[in-house]
Structures are given as structure tokens and as C-alpha cells.
Design a protein that fits this description.
The chain is of the alpha+beta class. Helix content is 52%, strand content 22%. The chain has 9 helices and 10 strands.
């Protein structure tokens, strides 16, 4: 019987000495540290340390009369009560901890120069190469994505990525204006993932949504993009993309 009890106490988290002392107190009702150390052949200083741990865990309590300490085993119902109280404390902390998560640091970066969009594409390539992108969604109504320079850059980056087979692990999807449906550039993006089309997309900026990031790229005389790093915003934009994806046509 003792072996079964010791095994269960070990499963709960008590070590061998803690379990033996607790059982000794259950059998004898109350003992001094000297008596426990003598009966179980434990050094007295170690015995005090173990008893302190058992008191902290709620298995033992101490009575002190006339400078003499006597130790007693706590009833398991009392142990469970303390566990429940501690569980309640942790449960009450959960909403506060969730608030801390939602208050993550947000960074916003605005880059505007002649080669900013090429630099952004290369950055995406490097992240994908390192396995740091699990999904990449795009909403585009921009003809500048279909320029010869863009095609050449994407072809080079895609060729490199295909060698590593990393793209198999990335959920790549794009929504385009229907005017690009038969464009040669679609053949390249088909290698990244799936494409769908919507009529009269109103957005001027090309939107990229990927792990923790939302980027708005304005392809003008001087390319520029605004990068927002925020998980909550990414989650919202991801939901918006999924809504448009359901409306879009293949």
C-alpha cells in the first residue's frame, strides 16, 4: 500500500524524502523534527529543510508550544483547498496577462526611395529563406507590379526559393483586379501560391499581410511602403483578406 501512495505522491510532485516524511506524520499524528530525522535516518538539518518545503506545499503544518515545534500532516482536503485557492489566483490573472499580450509594442516604418519596393521584395525573400514566413497574402490593383524589372526580380528570387523547397510551407495567396487575369505576370505568381480576382478593386496601394506584419506599398514615381508590425492588426487584416477571398473568383 505504501508503495502505491509513494508513487502517487511522486506523480503529484513530492520527492522521496518529502513523501516519506508526510507518510510518517500521517501514521504518527505529530512528531518533532528530531523524531522524524531519527526514524527515517535523515540528517536533522536536511529534515528541517524538507519540512519547510512540505509546509509551503500545504502538506504539513507546525505547532509551537514552549519553544518546542511539533509537525503534523495536513488532511488532503485542506491541501486540495489550498490548491484551489492558488488555481483561483492564477485564473484571475489570465485576463490581465491577456491585456499585456495585446499591449505589444507596435512599430511603424515608412520607407520612400527609388528602390524601396525591390528592397522590400528582397526582405520577404530573406524571411522566407529563413523559414520565418508561414503565410503571405497580397491584394493588388497596381500595374507597376507587372513591369519588366519586377518580373525579372521575382523570377530570380522565385528560382532561388524553389531550390530550397521552402515555398511548400508557405500559404501564399493573392487577390488581383480582374484586368490582370490573363497577364503574363500571373504565371510567376502561380508559383508562389493561389490567385483570385475581383472586379474594380478600389485600393491604390498593394497590401501585403504576413506573419505579424501588414505592409502598404505605393508604387509611384518614387516607390514607398508603410510597414506596420503588430499582431492584432495582422489578425484583423488577415480576416479581411479571407472575406475578400471568399468573394473573389478564380
Amino acid at each position: 500500500m505504501n508503495d502505491n501512495i509513494l508513487y502517487s505522491l511522486k506523480e503529484y510532485g513530492l520527492d522521496e524524502n518529502e513523501s516519506n516524511i508526510y507518510l510518517q506524520l500521517v501514521k504518527n499524528k505529530e512528531l518533532t523534527a528530531y523524531q522524524i530525522a531519527k526514524d527515517l535516518h535523515i540528517h536533522r538539518s536536511n529534515c528541517y529543510n524538507i519540512l519547510d518545503r512540505l509546509i509551503t506545499k500545504g502538506f504539513v503544518y507546525v505547532i509551537e508550544l514552549e519553544n518546542k515545534k511539533t509537525y503534523l500532516a495536513n488532511d488532503l482536503t485542506n491541501v486540495l483547498g489550498k490548491i484551489k485557492n492558488k488555481e483561483s489566483i492564477l485564473l484571475s490573472l489570465m485576463p490581465e496577462l491577456e491585456k499585456l499580450k495585446s499591449n505589444e509594442t507596435t512599430t511603424v516604418k515608412h520607407v520612400k526611395n527609388l528602390n524601396s519596393f525591390s528592397e522590400f521584395n528582397i526582405k520577404l525573400y530573406e524571411l522566407a529563406k529563413k523559414g520565418q514566413i508561414s503565410f503571405l497574402y497580397m491584394i493588388s490593383n497596381s500595374p507597376d507590379l507587372t513591369t519588366r524589372n519586377s518580373r525579372l526580380l521575382h523570377e530570380r528570387l522565385l528560382t532561388d526559393l524553389k531550390k530550397t523547397k521552402i515555398l511548400k510551407n508557405v500559404d501564399g495567396r493573392a487577390i488581383w483586379n480582374t484586368k490582370f487575369r490573363n497577364h503574363n505576370f500571373m504565371q510567376q505568381f502561380a508559383k508562389l501560391g493561389k490567385n483570385k480576382f475581383l472586379k474594380k478593386l478600389p485600393n491604390e496601394a498593394t497590401t501585403f499581410i504576413y506573419d505579424g506584419h501588414v505592409v502598404f506599398a505605393f508604387l509611384e514615381e518614387n516607390d514607398s511602403f508603410i510597414e506596420i508590425k503588430n499582431k492584432m492588426i495582422t489578425t484583423e487584416m488577415k480576416a479581411y483578406f479571407e472575406y475578400l477571398w471568399e468573394l473573389a473568383e478564380k
